[in-house]
Amino acid sequence: MTHSALIIDNLQYANWSEKIFQQMVEGGVSAVHVTIAYHEQFRETVLNMEAWNRWFETYPDLIFQGFTADDVHRAQNEGRTAIFFGFQNPSPMEDDIGLIEILHRLGGRFMQLSYNNQSFLATGCYEDEDPGITRFGKQAIAEMNRVGMVVDMSHSAERSTLEAIEISSRPIAITHANPHVWHPALRNKSHAVLSALTKAGGMLGFSLYPHHLKDGTDCTLDSFCQAIADAAASYGAQHLGIGSDLCQDHPDSVVEWMRNGRWSKVLDYGEGSAGNAGFPPQPDWFVDNRDFGNISEGLEKVGFDQAEINGIMGRNWLNFYETSFGASAAATG
Amino acid sequence: MTHSALIIDNLQYANWSEKIFQQMVEGGVSAVHVTIAYHEQFRETVLNMEAWNRWFETYPDLIFQGFTADDVHRAQNEGRTAIFFGFQNPSPMEDDIGLIEILHRLGGRFMQLSYNNQSFLATGCYEDEDPGITRFGKQAIAEMNRVGMVVDMSHSAERSTLEAIEISSRPIAITHANPHVWHPALRNKSHAVLSALTKAGGMLGFSLYPHHLKDGTDCTLDSFCQAIADAAASYGAQHLGIGSDLCQDHPDSVVEWMRNGRWSKVLDYGEGSAGNAGFPPQPDWFVDNRDFGNISEGLEKVGFDQAEINGIMGRNWLNFYETSFGASAAATG
Q1: Span A7-325: which CATH code?
Q2: pTM for the complete prediction?
Q3: Ramachandran class of A130: left when φ > 0, alpha when ψ lies in -120 to 50, beta otherwise
Q4: For residue B2, what pLDDT is reported?
């Protein structure tokens, strides 16, 4: 039972390759939410979907596109990995609310309302001012709620995040971030946010991106798992999962793109710095998709029972998928 | 049984409105293949899909988007109309073969390889020269076959059409045209084409657009039904259906767009003429979606039995939908 438990990683952005897809399957990862847009507009996002379609066609024994929670069961039964699309910025919907339904039809299941900067919809966590959810943002949240696209506030600012939780009629997600109390990085989340998020039925995906970890690359497995245990004590284990933010095999030019898109002529270092501009190395206990077993073991050592571990490693996200990806009851016609 | 028989109209392009959707339901039309692009590029086609999504949301008691043959049964059971998307030109896929799968995911089920003019893929019926299916065209047909998008050659030239029938690994369609032997219009189809089409399992949708009818607007119901009877004798009734080409409530500016798109600075009159440039009036026995009963009765008068009538009015298209809209067996992963 332990080794065949369901694993879902609710955020990765790798330099995708057959090697990585094989590692997903070897690691028993049944579903991965993959980022397919950071700053891409609609047509560019569709080109990224086309690239994924080519991979689905080329590696059908390893991966297929996921649309519903049932696809996760199918992946687990068939020893494959279901790939779910998400966007870290609302750039794919441009200025057009009608594109939300189109993107959902194409498989988009998570969309951040902002990525570090101010968007049309909400404020990013690097802005000095956070005026909250905009007029367009309120309309977009309602439309995302209607069609079944999850609001993700991982890179958003505090007030915008609290308002999104309040405004959204369905539970939202912070797919990849950690508690600020454990590691006070700008990207990590306050108690107020995590409390409101989980009280509203939302999910937090624990990140393994070194800038989000206490002691960065040197973070210990025990410290990471203890942070999850502390969060479980505060918010309930059923609201916690993994969103590793694994950025595997990328050249550093990609993290420059993630941080700078086309918006800045002056290099922005985001969570890094001029002296530490590239992708940081992963902790040695979580390097690729074959290392989720280490986390399961670490969770056991800090005192979680098997049901809680199964929840955190995949079941909690699966439950969230089940109620989040379909049209709202009011919208089914 | 007679009055509740399944009705499918496999081509319309109307100035869509609640009135027309109500007429579909009143007329007992369970499925309509609607044109959503004449010359539109990808992003423009998506805007047209967004407009349809708005109609689906606004009139859920009348219409919903159809993706599979099962949706036709659902429409019939619920007294609604399933709307299937199609393109009269490959313009929505631009120069990008990857867009075929994207458009199919969005519900595109029929695509003409050319519309009157030469395209990247094939030749249109108004060109002087017809070099047949192009290199890109062969790749596009294979991809359409793989994902389940039907090749439609209604507006294509003779050699291109014969080659498409030959090259396609799945049956193709001529969604809206009539036999040339009955009315020798440029848009109507030769015996050679209809024979090859139907021998390969393809479908012909009989058009009610006056330029395709013997005696145009004055065409009699009996003449129309006799043409179907003659075609049934030559090719088999099971390969015949309706593709009315009903262009309801449009201003004449729309037929100008259909004929001229953005490709000509000199007005092209297509099947019309300088003295008869607009939409021609419909015959009085087929004006809107409530008139399919007239055709059923006409078919009975020319000697079809009830099973044949049910086939022509809808069942034959339904059978075709069942085997045409899914991924090819080789493509399922």
Answers
A1: 3.20.20.140
A2: 0.94
A3: beta
A4: 40
